[in-house]
Amino acid sequence: MTWTVPMVAHTLLDAENRRQDLGRFTDEWAELDLDVAYQIQDETLARRIMRGEHIIGVKLGLTSRAKQQRMGVDAPLTAWLTDAMALGSGAPVPLDSLIHPRVEPEIVFVLGRPLAGPGVTATSALAAVAAVHAGIEVIDSRYRDFRFRLADVVADNASSGRVVAGSVALPPQGLDLALEPCVLHVNGEVVHTATGAAVQGHPAEALALAANTLAGRGITMEEGWCVYTGGLTDAVPLAAGDQIVAEFGHLGSVTVTGE
Ligand code: OOG
Ligand code: MG
């Protein structure tokens, strides 16, 4: 089968809407490289915008060793977040609109001014941050059993599902985000622990990476955008009745429940 950018974009969004998982496109389409994959990702964004969604920010994926090792992909990536993906803190996750959701704890930045590469460092990136939040991402790959190569997952908007930011908002000054601890609880049991250093050595390194790589596609991150810097730990499955809490040291905690 010969695929095109619009065909793959349509197929991915259709799979999302119908909650049907897919095989990997890289098995069928040899030309699907990283450039084409980001074109597909941008095409899915254009279609989301056409149906009334708007950009609220970006997410990084596969920024920690824990995530890279589990998913078998060894490079970070960026993807889009829209308002349709945002859940209120404490709101139940609508399992009947997702395929096979998994939950991961993340550190979230909200930008106080635009941020554009190239040449952004962790220090200059952090200077653009207005607030830091605890966060949870509910990922949901459109690929069967989360089996994908880098180009597949980039095309699939990095398994985007839902995002939740905690209500505590702290200025970055005075926080040591490399040392910020995170404990992930599932139904009262601790399942994973990490510190902010799990993500690229420091979450601000991930923010700089996003600014610099997006600049390669002519994209500036805007004031007010949120940036999810990537799962600090491996993700855990979310089933009906589950309560998952990401508890941080200074950033408070975020809870999601499967419903
Ligand atoms: C890809 C998305 C990864 C993260 O934070 O690392 C991601 C996946 O694991 O399905 O969102
Ligand atoms: Mg994530």
Automatic annotation (TrEMBL):
Residues 56-255 form the Fumarylacetoacetase-like C-terminal domain. This is Fumarylacetoacetate hydrolase family protein. InterPro entries: Fumarylacetoacetase-like_C (IPR011234), Fumarylacetoacetase_C_sf (IPR036663), Hydratase-Decarb/MhpD_sf (IPR050772). GO terms for molecular function: 2-oxopent-4-enoate hydratase activity; hydrolase activity. It comes from the Bacteria. Keywords: Hydrolase, Lyase. One of its GO terms (cellular component) is cytoplasm.
